[in-house]
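S.,

Sequence below, as promised.
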Amino acid sequence: MAHLRHELVEGVLDDMYAFWWAINQETIAQPAYRQIFNSSSISGSADVQNSALMNATLRETAEGADVQISDPTAGRKYVAKLRRFTAGTIIPDELLSDASKPALVNFVTEWQRAARTTLMLEQEQYYFDLFNRGGYTAGHSIFNQTSAEFEDPSGDFAFDSTELFNLTGNSRSFLKLPDGVSSNAFYNSLGATGKPLNSDNFDSAYTLMSATNSFNDEGKRIMNVPELLIAHPNNRKAAHQIVDTPMGAGVPGDTANGVNHNNGIVSLLLSPYLRDATSWFIYRNNGMWEALDQEAPEFRIWQDNKTFTTYLAMKVRYGHRIKSFHNAAGGNIPSS
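The prediction came back faster than expected:
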Protein backbone atom coordinates (compact mmCIF):
# COMPACT_ATOMS: atom_id res chain seq x y z
CA MET A 1 0.00 0.00 0.00
CA ALA A 2 3.05 2.18 -0.56
CA HIS A 3 1.43 4.89 -2.69
CA LEU A 4 -1.66 5.17 -0.53
CA ARG A 5 -1.62 7.68 2.27
CA HIS A 6 -1.91 5.79 5.52
CA GLU A 7 -4.14 8.49 7.01
CA LEU A 8 -6.57 8.25 4.10
CA VAL A 9 -6.99 4.50 4.40
CA GLU A 10 -7.32 4.61 8.17
CA GLY A 11 -9.88 7.38 7.91
CA VAL A 12 -11.95 5.46 5.38
CA LEU A 13 -11.84 2.35 7.57
CA ASP A 14 -13.04 4.35 10.56
CA ASP A 15 -15.85 5.71 8.41
CA MET A 16 -16.78 2.18 7.35
CA TYR A 17 -17.25 0.94 10.91
CA ALA A 18 -19.26 4.03 11.83
CA PHE A 19 -21.45 3.69 8.74
CA TRP A 20 -22.03 -0.02 9.33
CA TRP A 21 -23.30 0.78 12.82
CA ALA A 22 -25.54 3.49 11.37
CA ILE A 23 -27.15 1.32 8.68
CA ASN A 24 -27.76 -1.39 11.27
CA GLN A 25 -29.57 1.18 13.42
CA GLU A 26 -31.75 2.29 10.51
CA THR A 27 -32.86 -1.27 9.69
CA ILE A 28 -36.51 -1.14 10.74
CA ALA A 29 -37.77 -4.57 9.70
CA GLN A 30 -36.30 -7.39 11.76
CA PRO A 31 -35.42 -10.55 9.84
CA ALA A 32 -37.98 -13.32 10.22
CA TYR A 33 -35.47 -15.81 11.61
CA ARG A 34 -35.23 -13.76 14.80
CA GLN A 35 -38.82 -14.72 15.58
CA ILE A 36 -37.49 -18.27 15.80
CA PHE A 37 -33.93 -18.05 17.10
CA ASN A 38 -32.53 -16.12 20.03
CA SER A 39 -29.90 -13.71 18.71
CA SER A 40 -26.67 -14.10 20.68
CA SER A 41 -22.90 -14.33 20.46
CA ILE A 42 -20.06 -16.55 21.61
CA SER A 43 -16.53 -15.77 22.73
CA GLY A 44 -14.07 -16.82 20.04
CA SER A 45 -14.77 -18.86 16.93
CA ALA A 46 -16.23 -21.95 18.62
CA ASP A 47 -17.85 -22.92 21.89
CA VAL A 48 -19.27 -25.94 23.72
CA GLN A 49 -21.88 -26.14 26.46
CA ASN A 50 -22.96 -29.08 28.60
CA SER A 51 -26.63 -29.80 29.24
CA ALA A 52 -25.92 -30.80 32.83
CA LEU A 53 -25.37 -27.13 33.64
CA MET A 54 -28.72 -26.20 32.10
CA ASN A 55 -30.96 -28.65 33.96
CA ALA A 56 -30.51 -28.28 37.70
CA THR A 57 -32.19 -31.18 39.51
CA LEU A 58 -34.21 -30.27 42.60
CA ARG A 59 -34.82 -33.11 45.04
CA GLU A 60 -36.70 -33.28 48.31
CA THR A 61 -34.09 -33.73 51.03
CA ALA A 62 -34.77 -34.74 54.63
CA GLU A 63 -33.38 -32.63 57.48
CA GLY A 64 -29.77 -33.57 58.09
CA ALA A 65 -29.47 -35.51 54.82
CA ASP A 66 -26.73 -34.77 52.33
CA VAL A 67 -27.39 -32.55 49.37
CA GLN A 68 -27.46 -34.67 46.21
CA ILE A 69 -24.80 -33.33 43.86
CA SER A 70 -25.11 -33.49 40.09
CA ASP A 71 -22.14 -34.04 37.78
CA PRO A 72 -21.76 -30.88 35.63
CA THR A 73 -20.03 -32.88 32.88
CA ALA A 74 -22.54 -35.72 32.63
CA GLY A 75 -24.88 -34.21 30.05
CA ARG A 76 -24.90 -33.74 26.30
CA LYS A 77 -22.41 -31.54 24.51
CA TYR A 78 -23.88 -28.66 22.53
CA VAL A 79 -21.16 -27.57 20.11
CA ALA A 80 -21.29 -24.32 18.16
CA LYS A 81 -19.00 -22.58 15.74
CA LEU A 82 -18.95 -19.39 13.70
CA ARG A 83 -18.77 -19.85 9.95
CA ARG A 84 -16.76 -17.42 7.83
CA PHE A 85 -18.32 -15.43 5.00
CA THR A 86 -16.54 -12.83 2.86
CA ALA A 87 -17.20 -10.27 0.16
CA GLY A 88 -14.92 -7.87 -1.70
CA THR A 89 -14.52 -5.40 -4.54
CA ILE A 90 -11.86 -3.37 -6.37
CA ILE A 91 -11.53 0.33 -5.61
CA PRO A 92 -10.98 2.37 -8.80
CA ASP A 93 -7.59 4.16 -8.87
CA GLU A 94 -9.14 7.55 -9.54
CA LEU A 95 -10.88 7.50 -6.14
CA LEU A 96 -7.64 7.19 -4.19
CA SER A 97 -6.26 10.72 -4.49
CA ASP A 98 -6.55 13.11 -1.55
CA ALA A 99 -9.00 15.29 -3.42
CA SER A 100 -11.26 12.35 -4.06
CA LYS A 101 -11.97 11.35 -0.48
CA PRO A 102 -15.69 12.32 -0.61
CA ALA A 103 -16.09 10.26 -3.78
CA LEU A 104 -14.13 7.40 -2.20
CA VAL A 105 -16.27 7.44 0.93
CA ASN A 106 -19.43 7.50 -1.21
CA PHE A 107 -18.20 4.50 -3.21
CA VAL A 108 -17.35 2.58 -0.04
CA THR A 109 -20.61 3.35 1.76
CA GLU A 110 -22.71 2.35 -1.25
CA TRP A 111 -20.84 -0.95 -1.38
CA GLN A 112 -21.38 -1.40 2.34
CA ARG A 113 -25.11 -0.78 2.01
CA ALA A 114 -25.31 -3.45 -0.69
CA ALA A 115 -23.22 -5.82 1.45
CA ARG A 116 -25.52 -5.25 4.44
CA THR A 117 -28.59 -6.10 2.37
CA THR A 118 -26.93 -9.21 0.98
CA LEU A 119 -25.88 -10.28 4.48
CA MET A 120 -29.46 -10.02 5.75
CA LEU A 121 -30.72 -12.14 2.87
CA GLU A 122 -28.00 -14.74 3.29
CA GLN A 123 -28.58 -15.01 7.04
CA GLU A 124 -32.32 -15.43 6.46
CA GLN A 125 -31.67 -18.33 4.09
CA TYR A 126 -29.03 -19.87 6.37
CA TYR A 127 -31.31 -20.06 9.40
CA PHE A 128 -34.32 -21.31 7.43
CA ASP A 129 -32.05 -23.96 5.88
CA LEU A 130 -31.92 -25.55 9.32
CA PHE A 131 -35.58 -26.36 8.69
CA ASN A 132 -35.08 -27.16 5.01
CA ARG A 133 -32.33 -29.69 5.76
CA GLY A 134 -33.45 -30.77 9.20
CA GLY A 135 -35.01 -34.00 7.93
CA TYR A 136 -32.17 -35.12 5.66
CA THR A 137 -31.72 -38.80 6.47
CA ALA A 138 -28.03 -38.65 5.53
CA GLY A 139 -27.51 -35.46 7.51
CA HIS A 140 -26.15 -32.19 6.15
CA SER A 141 -22.94 -30.22 6.69
CA ILE A 142 -24.87 -27.21 8.00
CA PHE A 143 -25.30 -29.16 11.25
CA ASN A 144 -21.64 -30.19 11.53
CA GLN A 145 -20.08 -27.98 14.18
CA THR A 146 -16.60 -29.53 14.16
CA SER A 147 -13.90 -26.85 14.25
CA ALA A 148 -10.20 -26.57 14.99
CA GLU A 149 -11.16 -26.19 18.66
CA PHE A 150 -13.94 -28.73 19.21
CA GLU A 151 -15.03 -32.02 17.69
CA ASP A 152 -18.76 -32.33 17.04
CA PRO A 153 -19.65 -35.91 18.05
CA SER A 154 -22.94 -35.72 16.10
CA GLY A 155 -21.26 -34.99 12.76
CA ASP A 156 -23.77 -33.94 10.12
CA PHE A 157 -26.75 -34.44 12.43
CA ALA A 158 -28.30 -32.53 15.33
CA PHE A 159 -26.86 -32.55 18.84
CA ASP A 160 -28.11 -36.10 19.58
CA SER A 161 -26.79 -37.70 16.34
CA THR A 162 -30.30 -37.72 14.85
CA GLU A 163 -31.91 -35.58 12.17
CA LEU A 164 -33.26 -32.36 13.64
CA PHE A 165 -36.69 -33.59 12.49
CA ASN A 166 -36.56 -37.38 12.64
CA LEU A 167 -38.95 -38.74 10.05
CA THR A 168 -39.56 -42.32 11.11
CA GLY A 169 -39.44 -44.29 14.32
CA ASN A 170 -38.97 -43.36 17.94
CA SER A 171 -35.23 -42.79 17.49
CA ARG A 172 -34.75 -39.97 20.03
CA SER A 173 -34.41 -40.09 23.79
CA PHE A 174 -34.01 -37.82 26.77
CA LEU A 175 -31.01 -38.36 29.03
CA LYS A 176 -33.38 -39.54 31.78
CA LEU A 177 -36.60 -41.47 31.35
CA PRO A 178 -39.45 -38.98 31.82
CA ASP A 179 -41.68 -39.44 34.84
CA GLY A 180 -44.70 -41.62 34.07
CA VAL A 181 -43.36 -42.73 30.66
CA SER A 182 -42.60 -46.40 30.03
CA SER A 183 -40.35 -46.00 26.98
CA ASN A 184 -37.66 -43.41 26.40
CA ALA A 185 -38.32 -43.25 22.65
CA PHE A 186 -39.56 -40.14 20.87
CA TYR A 187 -39.93 -38.44 17.47
CA ASN A 188 -40.74 -34.86 16.41
CA SER A 189 -42.02 -35.14 12.83
CA LEU A 190 -45.15 -36.50 11.22
CA GLY A 191 -43.11 -37.66 8.25
CA ALA A 192 -41.70 -36.72 4.87
CA THR A 193 -44.84 -37.20 2.79
CA GLY A 194 -48.58 -37.53 3.16
CA LYS A 195 -48.83 -35.02 5.99
CA PRO A 196 -50.01 -31.77 4.38
CA LEU A 197 -50.96 -28.76 6.43
CA ASN A 198 -54.56 -29.32 7.49
CA SER A 199 -56.52 -29.22 10.71
CA ASP A 200 -56.06 -32.90 11.58
CA ASN A 201 -52.31 -32.92 10.95
CA PHE A 202 -51.90 -29.64 12.80
CA ASP A 203 -53.70 -31.22 15.78
CA SER A 204 -51.37 -34.23 15.66
CA ALA A 205 -48.25 -32.06 15.61
CA TYR A 206 -49.63 -29.80 18.34
CA THR A 207 -50.28 -32.76 20.64
CA LEU A 208 -46.90 -34.28 19.81
CA MET A 209 -45.07 -31.11 20.78
CA SER A 210 -47.17 -29.81 23.68
CA ALA A 211 -47.79 -33.15 25.44
CA THR A 212 -45.82 -36.15 24.15
CA ASN A 213 -42.47 -34.34 23.86
CA SER A 214 -42.92 -31.78 26.64
CA PHE A 215 -39.98 -32.86 28.81
CA ASN A 216 -36.45 -31.65 29.37
CA ASP A 217 -33.35 -33.85 29.35
CA GLU A 218 -33.80 -34.51 33.07
CA GLY A 219 -37.12 -36.13 32.26
CA LYS A 220 -39.12 -33.36 33.92
CA ARG A 221 -42.38 -32.11 32.46
CA ILE A 222 -42.15 -28.61 30.92
CA MET A 223 -44.53 -26.13 29.32
CA ASN A 224 -44.02 -26.60 25.61
CA VAL A 225 -47.00 -24.89 23.99
CA PRO A 226 -46.38 -23.93 20.32
CA GLU A 227 -46.19 -20.22 19.48
CA LEU A 228 -45.62 -20.17 15.71
CA LEU A 229 -46.92 -21.95 12.64
CA ILE A 230 -44.19 -21.63 10.00
CA ALA A 231 -45.22 -22.21 6.39
CA HIS A 232 -44.42 -21.22 2.81
CA PRO A 233 -46.50 -18.37 1.32
CA ASN A 234 -47.88 -20.87 -1.23
CA ASN A 235 -49.44 -22.70 1.73
CA ARG A 236 -51.03 -19.60 3.23
CA LYS A 237 -54.63 -20.61 2.48
CA ALA A 238 -54.40 -23.77 4.54
CA ALA A 239 -52.45 -21.95 7.26
CA HIS A 240 -55.00 -19.15 7.60
CA GLN A 241 -57.92 -21.59 7.55
CA ILE A 242 -56.47 -23.42 10.54
CA VAL A 243 -55.51 -20.50 12.79
CA ASP A 244 -57.67 -17.60 11.58
CA THR A 245 -61.11 -19.17 11.09
CA PRO A 246 -63.34 -17.25 13.56
CA MET A 247 -64.71 -19.01 16.61
CA GLY A 248 -68.04 -20.64 15.86
CA ALA A 249 -67.44 -20.72 12.12
CA GLY A 250 -66.42 -24.36 12.27
CA VAL A 251 -63.29 -26.41 11.83
CA PRO A 252 -62.18 -26.36 8.17
CA GLY A 253 -63.69 -29.44 6.54
CA ASP A 254 -65.78 -30.36 9.60
CA THR A 255 -69.29 -31.30 8.42
CA ALA A 256 -70.61 -30.83 11.96
CA ASN A 257 -69.55 -27.18 11.85
CA GLY A 258 -67.93 -27.44 15.25
CA VAL A 259 -66.04 -24.68 17.03
CA ASN A 260 -62.56 -24.09 15.62
CA HIS A 261 -60.39 -24.97 18.62
CA ASN A 262 -57.27 -23.72 16.77
CA ASN A 263 -58.47 -20.17 16.14
CA GLY A 264 -55.68 -17.81 17.23
CA ILE A 265 -53.81 -20.61 18.99
CA VAL A 266 -50.48 -19.70 17.32
CA SER A 267 -49.08 -16.81 15.29
CA LEU A 268 -48.43 -17.35 11.60
CA LEU A 269 -45.01 -16.87 10.01
CA LEU A 270 -44.95 -17.20 6.22
CA SER A 271 -41.48 -17.43 4.68
CA PRO A 272 -40.36 -17.93 1.07
CA TYR A 273 -37.04 -19.19 2.48
CA LEU A 274 -38.67 -22.57 3.06
CA ARG A 275 -37.51 -24.46 -0.03
CA ASP A 276 -40.46 -26.89 -0.11
CA ALA A 277 -43.83 -25.13 -0.43
CA THR A 278 -45.64 -28.03 1.27
CA SER A 279 -43.46 -28.37 4.38
CA TRP A 280 -44.70 -26.76 7.59
CA PHE A 281 -43.61 -26.50 11.19
CA ILE A 282 -44.89 -25.50 14.60
CA TYR A 283 -42.41 -23.98 17.03
CA ARG A 284 -41.89 -22.53 20.49
CA ASN A 285 -39.01 -20.16 21.22
CA ASN A 286 -37.75 -21.43 24.56
CA GLY A 287 -34.21 -20.14 24.07
CA MET A 288 -32.83 -23.52 23.01
CA TRP A 289 -32.17 -22.50 19.40
CA GLU A 290 -29.61 -19.71 19.05
CA ALA A 291 -28.62 -17.56 16.08
CA LEU A 292 -24.99 -16.66 16.72
CA ASP A 293 -25.16 -13.49 14.65
CA GLN A 294 -23.91 -10.72 16.93
CA GLU A 295 -20.24 -10.54 15.91
CA ALA A 296 -19.27 -7.30 14.18
CA PRO A 297 -17.79 -7.57 10.68
CA GLU A 298 -14.14 -6.86 9.88
CA PHE A 299 -13.17 -4.56 6.98
CA ARG A 300 -9.85 -4.40 5.12
CA ILE A 301 -8.32 -2.20 2.40
CA TRP A 302 -5.06 -3.31 0.79
CA GLN A 303 -3.05 -2.97 -2.40
CA ASP A 304 -1.43 -5.65 -4.57
CA ASN A 305 2.15 -4.43 -4.92
CA LYS A 306 2.57 -6.09 -8.32
CA THR A 307 -0.56 -4.86 -10.05
CA PHE A 308 -1.23 -1.73 -7.94
CA THR A 309 -4.84 -2.92 -7.68
CA THR A 310 -6.58 -1.79 -4.50
CA TYR A 311 -9.07 -4.10 -2.82
CA LEU A 312 -11.83 -3.60 -0.30
CA ALA A 313 -13.14 -6.63 1.60
CA MET A 314 -15.41 -7.62 4.44
CA LYS A 315 -15.34 -10.72 6.64
CA VAL A 316 -18.30 -11.65 8.83
CA ARG A 317 -18.94 -14.75 10.93
CA TYR A 318 -22.18 -16.27 12.13
CA GLY A 319 -23.56 -19.67 13.03
CA HIS A 320 -26.04 -21.42 15.27
CA ARG A 321 -26.52 -23.69 18.26
CA ILE A 322 -29.44 -26.12 18.72
CA LYS A 323 -29.95 -27.70 22.14
CA SER A 324 -33.32 -29.44 21.87
CA PHE A 325 -35.73 -31.20 19.53
CA HIS A 326 -38.87 -30.93 21.63
CA ASN A 327 -39.66 -27.29 20.82
CA ALA A 328 -40.55 -27.99 17.15
CA ALA A 329 -42.58 -30.41 15.08
CA GLY A 330 -43.91 -30.49 11.54
CA GLY A 331 -45.07 -32.36 8.49
CA ASN A 332 -44.03 -33.00 4.88
CA ILE A 333 -40.41 -32.55 5.96
CA PRO A 334 -37.87 -32.66 3.08
CA SER A 335 -35.77 -35.81 3.45
CA SER A 336 -33.01 -35.06 0.92
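The beta strands are 38-40, 46-50, 77-91, 228-231, 267-270, 280-283, 289-292, 298-303, 310-322, 328-331.

Coffee later?
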